[in-house]
Amino acid sequence: MKDDNRKAKLMTIGIAVVLILIICGISVIIHAIHRRDSQETGSKLQEDIMDYANGDQEQGILTQEKDKETEGQDVLTDGAPDGAEQESKPDSDGQGVKADAMTDQDKQPEGNGNPATANTGNQAGTAGQEKPAATGQNGQTADNGSQGNQASQQGSAGSQTNSATSQGGQAGSGESAMVVEQSPNQSGKTIMEEEADKANQKTTAKWQKEANENLAAVAIDLPRQMSEMKGYWEAGNMAAVEDLAYLPRYRAASEKLSGTTKYYYFGDTDSDNRPNGKGLAMYTDNQYYFGEWKNGVRSGNGMWIKFYVYDKNAKAKDSIYLQHSYSGSWANDLPNGDGAEHYDFIDENLDSDMTYNRNFIGNFKNGLYDGEMYITNYHKDGNVKEWSGTAVNGVWQPLGDTDGQGKYAVIVELTNPDNYQWMKVAENKNNGVSGLISAAK
């Protein structure tokens, strides 16, 4: 009898354990499915955003080409000279939303402000910040540290500047462009093919400098380098553009412009040899622009990118950015009109407890946010949240009164109207695309 009772108890315990294991297994499977769906949704959202940004630029270029065709027809009709004048002009350090300016808090703003009135933000254009806001899941601000200064040996434009001038035209008084013309003698191999032959020599990630690197000793060939990059950009091969930008010969050319607002230009020009039409510009700090120009300044549709480079031993928290870009409308050499700002991160260096603002889409005015902005942020595990806020001339409009720490809510999560990003009052200014080199600033 006792043996029967004991067997019954053991059987009951065994069944309970099996049921618990089954329940745990089902829970793990459900969690994995939800996480996968979340990551797929985030990836799809990012693809849609980039498709929008790239489509906007392509549409602008197609419009320009159509206009040129129309102008060509006018030439045949009335004998007027062909060619539409356009222009571009760079330099100036941009200012934007500070990385430590915003915090993400699940909290109702105090005072009379009504967060429910926050606009959802159009998906038109965006201006950026040199450091996107990184927010802790507990609402605390992340300290992203320094940007990881790029090698900026104070190399003068020296002989290379003179070479560019003799090949493509003179940088006149007050002009920033140094026009580079196509070289008649080109190597049999492309730069990409040459680099593929010595790929095994690279011992660091592409965004890291080699030990004892000396860019001043690197040979450069501006006509060849600019021509090849422009070709890839025109073909929409941004992976190749990125690979070229990280090569020592491109970083060496960019570094020769250090401390100046000048830029090397390869593309269409007007009768005064100013950028006019469509072309590629290289600035210091590994910055590039490809798109439309008018009378020597960026005007029309175009894309600007900054490529980050770090020391091999840079701390993770100081080396989280891979690229910072803006695609959209330009006027007076600055983002003006609809556009999309975007950040690419080095995922392995991100803090798993933080989220990072990644896309800003809306309207820009002289490089600053101006109007309704649609924002997405990014977490290391691939999760994405959508936000909305309104700015006027680079100042986020508060969604309520300040709290006890001198902060107010400025951005609201679209799917959770009780969740906000907060900013200190004193830091709420000049929010826009920062780090952008332009003489217009």
The level of helicity is 25-40%
> Count the helices. How many?
6
Mean pLDDT equals 75
Q: Stretches where pLDDT falls below 50 for ≥5 residues?
A: 59-101, 110-174
Distance between the termini: 93 Å
Rg, Å, rounded: 26 Å
Task: Sketch the topology as an H/E string, one letter per element.
Answer: HEEHEHHHHEEEEEEEEEEEE
List how many beta strands DSSP finds.
15
Beta percentage is: 25-35%
Give a short account of the largest sheet.
15 strands, mixed
Oligomer category: single chain
Form type: globular
- Derived from helix and strand composition plus strand pairing, the structural class reads alpha+beta
Write up this protein.
It is globular, with a radius of gyration of 26 Å. It contains six helices and 15 strands. Mean pLDDT is 75; it is low at 59-101 and 110-174. The protein is α+β, with helices and mostly antiparallel strands. Helix 4 (222-234) packs antiparallel against helix 5 (238-245). It starts with a helix and ends in a 17-residue tail after the last strand. It has a 15-stranded mixed beta sheet that branches. Helices cover 28% and strands 26% of the residues.
Topology:
Layout lengths: L1 H77 L23 E4 L28 E3 L21 H11 L8 E3 L11 H7 L24 H13 L3 H8 L2 H8 L7 E7 L5 E9 L3 E8 L2 E11 L13 E11 L2 E12 L8 E12 L2 E12 L4 E9 L2 E2 L10 E7 L6 E5 L17
Parallel strand pairs: 3-4
Antiparallel strand pairs: 1-15, 2-10, 4-5, 5-6, 6-7, 7-8, 8-9, 9-10, 10-11, 11-12, 12-13, 12-14, 14-15
Helix pairs in contact: 4-5
